[in-house]
Structure formats: C-alpha cells, structure tokens
Amino acid sequence: MKVSTPLTSGWTLSLDPARHVPDEAPDALREAARLPATVPGCVHTDLLDAGLIPDPFVDLNETEVAWVGRADWSYRTGLNTTADATGHERTDLVFDGLDTVAEVRLDGRLLGTTRNMHRSYRYDITGRTDPGRETPLQVDFTSAYQEAERVRDLLGPRPNAYPEPFNFVRKMASSFGWDWGPTLVTAGIWRQARLEHWSVARIAEVRPEVTVAPDGTGRVRLHLRVERSARGAERDLHAVLDIAGVETGVHLPPGSTTATVEAEVPDPDLWWPRGYGEQHLYTCTLHLTDAEAPTEALDRWERRVGFRTVELDTSPDAAGSGFTLVVNGVRTFVRGVNWIPDDALITRVDAARYRRRLTRAADAGVDLVRVWGGGVYESEAFYDICDELGLMVWQDFLFACAAYPEEEPLRSEVEAEARENVVRLMPHASLVLWNGNNENLWGFRDWDWEPELAGATWGEGYYLDVLPRVVAATDPTRPYWAGSPWSGSRDLHPNDPGHGTSHSWEVWNRLDHAAYRDDVPRFVAEFGWQAPPAHATLRRAVTDDPLTPDSPGVLHHQKAEDGNGKLARGLAPHFAAPTDYDTWHYLTQVNQVRAVTTGVEHWRAHWPHCAGVILWQLNDCWPVTSWAAIDGDEREKPLYHALGRLFADRLLTFRHIDGRPALTAVNQSGTPWSCEVSLRRLDVNGAVGAEQRVALDVPARGVTDLEIPAALTTAQDPRRELLVADADGLRALHFAVPDREFAYPPAEAVVKVTPQEGGAQVTVTAHTLVRDLLLQADRLHPEARADRGLVTLLPGESVDITLTGWDGRSVEALPGALRAVNGSGAPISFGDASR
Questions:
Q1: pLDDT exceeds 70 at position 787
Q2: Per the confidence metrics, is the pTM higher than 0.90?
Q3: Residues with a known catalytic role
C-alpha cells in the first residue's frame, strides 16, 4: 500500500544571499540567519512569527514590508526516507503548491523548476537519498516580481487595472494589491509537501463523471490513469469501484496505464442546493490491486460525490437571451456572493475558518458562492464544506481585470493548470459552473485596451478556445461560460444587460443606488456598495488619534479609487453630510444596506427575466473599507444581517409599476404562498391614515404584484407618512421622500438589558418611529456580537437583540452603541436604561 509522509517539520527559512537582498531587509536576516519555517506557510507569516516584520494589516505597515516580496528566499530541511521507504520500489517528493517561482534541489542536485502557484509538482527521488543520514532538501524562491518583469520584457507590456505585473506570472493576482486588498507579494511552500512511497503502481489521476439518467438512475464513470514502476510494467492490475453498495471493476493488462470503470446506482437520493432539498453525498472509493496479490491494495482513491444534474439555459427569447442555472430540472434564482481569498496571507486560512465563513453565508440565505478569478482554486476543505451546506460553486479560472499574453512561457502553464484543477475539483457536487475570466472580455471592449495592445494577444484565445476545450474534454458534466460579464457572443457588448451575465458598477462608481431600478439584467454577477468595517476592526488596525474618515490610517485602509469620495457622494442624495466619525461610520453602513436592498429587491421582483444576483462581496482579506458583508476580523456588518431578509425564500417589497406604488411578493420556495396582507398608511406618530387587508396568492417559485388602493397611496404629507405592508411575519416599508427630507421625530426608546448565559438580551421599545436602529455590539466589547442588524420600529413596537460576548453590566455604554437614522444618525434618546 502506498505510504504518504507529510514534510511538516525541520524546515528553516533564510534570505538567499546569492540572489537579490533588498536594502530594507533587517540585519538579522542579512547575517545568513536561518529562521524556523512553517510548512505549509509563507515567508510573511514566518517573519511575523520571528518578530522581524510588523503586522502588515496595522496602520501603514503594508508599505514597510513591501521589500519582502522583492527578496529571494530559501527553504531547507533534511530528508530521512529509510524507515518509510522500506519494501517500496519508488519514492516521490510531492509538492501540492509552491508559491511561485522556485528551484527544487536534493543534495545539491536540481530536481526541477516551477513558475505556477496553481499547480502541483512530483519528483522521483528513488535512490537519491542515503540511508542513515539526512539528505539536504532545498527550495529556493525567486521573487515573483522578477519573473513577472522578465516575462513582460520578453512578451511586451499588456494593460491591466492596477500598476503591478500580476498578469505575467501564474500567481494569486490579488497578492499584488486590489481595490480592497493590500500589496503583499508572498512566497513559500503554500500547500502540503510530502513523500510518497509505493510499489508496482499508483493511482495518478481519477476523473469522475457523475450523472443522473432521465429514468433517475445514477451513473458514475471513473476515468483512471495509473503510473507503473519498472517492475509493475508487466503486471496485471485490477481497479474496483465501490459506491452505494454497488461494486464493479476493470482489468488493466500489462503496460496499460488508462481505463474506465462504470457503476449504476438505482434511484439514488439527489444532491440539491440549499433551499431546494437535501445534500445527499455518497462515498466513492476506487481500489487498485495487483493480480498477484488481489487482497492487498496498491493504492486507494476516495471522494464524496453527489448525484445531480446541472444545465445552463441561455436560450434566446423576446428580450434577448437568458442565463439560468437549472439543477435537477429545477430553474433557480441564484442568491449568491462573490468570494475573494479570505486572508491576504492565504496560508492562514484553514478548514475551521472556511467552515465559519461558509456557514455564515448559508445562514444568510446564500445558495451560491462565486470563487473570483483573481484569487486561488481553494483547498479541498472549501469545496467539501460547500458540498455539505448545499452552496453551489461558480468557479472562475484565474484571470482577472487584465490582458494576459497567450504565448510561452505562459500558454502551456495555463493549459496544464486548468486541466489539473478541473480534475481535482470534479468530484464536488457543489461545483456547477466553470467561468473563463473576470472582466477581461469587458476590459478589452471598454477600457481602452485595444489601441494599447496594437494587435498583441490579450487572453481571448484562453477564454474562447483553450479553456472550453479543456472543460469539454475533461469535465463534460458541467457548463462553461467564457467570462463575467459576457453576453455569449462577440457580436454583442460583453456587458449587455439583455444577454448573459452583467456587472453593475456604474452604480456606486458614478450613480446613486436608486439607479439599480433603471434596468433588469438577465443575471447580475457583480454589484455592491462600500462601507467601513466594524468599529472594533478599524480601531484594531488603525491607531490614528483622532480616528476620522480621512485620517492617514483610515485612508490607507481604503483601497478603492476615490473610495471615500464615492461614499460621500452616495450619502448626499439621502442624508445630511455627517460631521463626525461616529455618524459617518453609522450612515455609511446604513447606505450600504440601502443600496444592496434596492438592487436585490428590484431584480428578484423581475424573476424569471432576471435569474440571479451575486453580491460583491461576502468576505474581506484584511481590515479595510470595502463592499464586504463580513469584515477582515470576521465581524458581520449590518449588510450581512440584511442578507437574511433579502435572500429568504419569501420577500415583500414596494416598488413602482407604471408610476404607481405596488407591493410585490416573491416566493422562491417550492410551495405556493397564500395569506392576508395588512396594508397601512401611517404618520410619524403611528396614527393610521388608511388601512386595508388584501388576499395574497403567490405560486411556487413565482412573483405576484398587488396594486395598492389609491386611498393608501394618497398621502396628505409625504414628509410625515409611510406605507407599511405586513404578511406572515414579513414587512415592507415605503418612504416617499429621502431621509434628509423626511420629518423624523427625534428617536426615543426605552432599553432593557437582561443578562443571560454567554451574553445578554437587549430589548428596545420605541416611543417614536425609530428608523434603522442599529446596536453596534463591538462598541460594548470587541468580542461582542449581535444577532441582528438594522431594524425599523413603529411607535410602541419592541425588538429583542441577543448579544454574545458582553455580560450586560456596563449599561452606560449603550447610548454610544445604539443609533438610528432619526437625527441623521445621532444616538437615540433613552427614556430609561435598566437591567
């Protein structure tokens, strides 16, 4: 049986004195010092552990550690293969990931070179280690800048969205900085290193095609490739597939290295996205044996798979052409989030962190996660968790916001990288779509690339030729789409809202969020609005005193071009300009929720014309003002809590149809929704100006519009009245004028604090209309969390807010933590605060 030994101990790290050593490098490293190194890991985390660099996430330290990415580094350890190699013919040295440009040497002899972070590497070292002594193993990394600049000089410049050469090296693009991320160009052994000892043959590759026939029969077809040793070349091999109690095998005669084995599973339980059904998974095992010793497995491959079908319907219709994911024959409205690397130092993201973040997404009603093209193909743990939670995965190939050369030395790397990762991720039922790139087809058309390129290659051949060929040949069970945005044709604008996928960035960059209502794309793959991180997150990362929206540290943690200017211009149509940091922080959070709410409610109301929204973005990779719903310290912004309502199966929203207010009810569940709706027109004091109850009937996975009687829409004073709709515990509100014009009374409430195990319950009872009440739990204690975000209370209504991480004793801190829109974000006036 194959024996695998992880290489996790005994590693050291040093600057490579024979190569480039930046002037900024500390003297302790210049003296040929070797530091303890963590593998898997990266140079930055080792330097942090050694206390040789400051935390790059704090203040302006990012710029102080920029030299690290320009340096060359050497990892070393010793191999002793004697014990594990006993009785085995072959010993392989395997690296699941090297970041990025490296030379691998054993006992001073070169084994190979690498230039791609997104591939694995295997070296036969049989007989190259000496029994009884440690054989030196050395991995020397050249700065990714040096490689990128070398390739740029060789192939010529190409335009991109940022002033860094990330498009000339196959490395996580966002390492070079983005409009939400720091520039921290990493290096290191970033995924597992190990020794593998084996005899006769090993399983080199398994491509599982898992399908469901029209009659409901599950089919598993495993395409197997083996590697044989010299002795194994003439052996008869046997591969046995076992799934759901069904066992079937295939014979590999001497010399054969490939085979296909198939099994049929009668009427399997299907895997469904969350909200549509259960996530049934089956353990699929393949054993490889030698005919001379059939009871002893040479190697074993095991994965969990799910039976389901997935199609992408882009059929033309009277309005253009759609973009609808169809799973198990059911057409879906996608409620998605975009995923970026969860830490700028990617090796710090472990399985527990993936589970926390993805569980939060599922809890908020998310059913799809798009793995964005400027990051990485995530680890197995990410996709395993998505399988379990029912989170569909849209996987970008790793191209983003730049023109990419199609010549060598990049072209062969791209094709090998794509094929390896398609094969690696194929077993996962959650994976529903391969996407060629992020914004590059759009960039060529609209970002003035064509004149600058002057006929040079820019990546189109990857997206429209290489990648679709790789997917068709390797994973025919899933659809491929050339890019996001992409209209499906060279003859159409890539970001045509009437066709395929669209990115909505005129809103936020140039337009108020009300402009989301101006069009209805077929599928919104990116849209979003910025807000700062939680106060405690910003306070940890920025030591400015005083903390202001434009203090140096706060501005450094705002990477978007004119980001604070856009925040201010976004507030202006709705609120009076904030005059202090606390009000600015609160109102920008409110406006982020308002913007995303406007878009999601509008697009969901137009199902099935619009078949999905994917929020930019779920997560952050460091403490930063960004579009994220969960910040870089894992604190939920108010936006996160708003997603629970916006992505719920059932949604109520007011909108205008033909110039008149209407109530729209969206039912994404698989059962009809029938109930009574209470419609009221209220003034700011809670007095009812008009009221009516109407029947509501919404078909399964349908949308119903209700016309609102004129008596309810004819306000005596729009500045003092609002519409309220209540149905089955859901509520929709409509204010006819912006907040800065509405005659809000000062927000007054009574607060009661009840300590309970692990935290406290805060009950707020409104004496007046209280708009967008927010309890910022982290202002009570940095570890405190609240179970809800913004909530609007009518006079006399109460809300219970459950807190963890705060014991409820310091009630005097509550006034600074509770705010409402009334008074342009000023603290609430309390009639009482008691425990």
A1: yes
A2: yes
A3: 439
